Amino acid sequence: MVLLVLVSAAQNGHSVNATAVSPDADSVFYRIDSSIRRMQDLFWQQSLRFLRKKKEKLRRRKCYITIDETHDSYTGRLHKKPLKELTKEERTIRQYIHKYKPKNGDTGSFKYLVFSLVYGKKRRVLRVKALKRKESYWFFIGKTLKTLSKEISFECALMDRGFYVAELVDQLQKEDIPFLIRAKLYDSTRTLYGIYWKWASYNYLFDNWLPTHLVLGRDFKGDEWGFLTNLNVKRLENLRHIYKKRWNTENIFKATDGIQLRVATSNHKTRMFSVCLSFLIYNAWQKRKNKPTLLDHIKQLFKTLLKIILQLCPHRDRLKLNLPLWEFITFE
């Protein structure tokens, strides 16, 4: 049903909601008996099966876990009414709409925490979590990395300055997770330590756990760098090259942003479905040997889907979709 609605929307140039409500009053997503937690768990279970299947292959490669946040633009009306005046559904929706505006014209955004695996020249999204407003997820990150450490051996977890938080570092040390976090450089940091051409390491203590190292230095361009890590490296400046692997996550977001199903709804489950779908397509593309361009992969995917849908043609009356769609599918 979902595939048919997507193809119908693409063929007619309509939004998903417009296509879904054309046969009857119910949205196709309303018919899906699912939840945010279930979608997150299914995605995570699939990733764990992949890691177990590729365990021997991954053991021969250097693997890195990257963690980052991504925002999905929202242009709808924010719920500004007092909390007591909201319906139960509106209260739930408002929990997932953040005030951050990624683009001009946005009224807010939906926020997702993404775990990715970088191994060789390949990347794969492992876990996605829809974040509520003001949600603390440091414990979740620590437990996820602990689970991953039992499945595969990875060099370290890579995170940007948004994760430069004492509670997270404490959790990572507690779980004995190797990590490299880009440090925020404050004026007080520069005054206390200074940042020189010669890289230097300073010990930090977090709630009596093992010491972490604050590493400061400059590159050949004069740019200042700061890292918080528990890694032991021969040359401190090498941390900069390790950290650059985190930018693979930005490449994932850039690619999936171009193939993500666009929805205008405020329904958090529909939004989560769209994000997960784009990551699943991306993972399938990365898995292919001698992989084509992402665009060619999408074309091949839709050809396959159309063949599957053709097998459903005898049941078109039950599916209640507009007749022009069936003529389009049959013609193809």
**At the third CATH level, what is the topology name of the largest domain?**
Transposase Inhibitor Protein From Tn5, Chain A, domain 1
Class inferred from helices and paired strands: alpha+beta
Total number of beta strands = 9
> How helical, in percent, are the residues?
40-55%
User: What order do the helices and strands follow?
Assistant: HHHHEHEEEHEHEHEEEHHHHHH
* Unreliable residue stretches: 23-27
CATH architectural grouping of the largest domain: Alpha-Beta Complex
Q: In angstroms, what is the radius of gyration?
A: 23 Å
Mean pLDDT: 83
Structure characterization notes:
The protein is of the alpha+beta class and 332 residues long. Helix content is 44%, strand content 18%. It has 2 domains: 1-33 and 302-332, no CATH class; 34-287, Transposase Inhibitor Protein From Tn5, Chain A, domain 1, CATH 3.90.350. Strands 1, 2, 3, 4, 5, 6, 7, 8 and 9 form a 9-stranded mixed sheet that branches. Helix 6 (138-151) packs parallel to helix 7 (166-174) and helix 10 (247-259) packs across helix 11. The two termini are 19 Å apart.
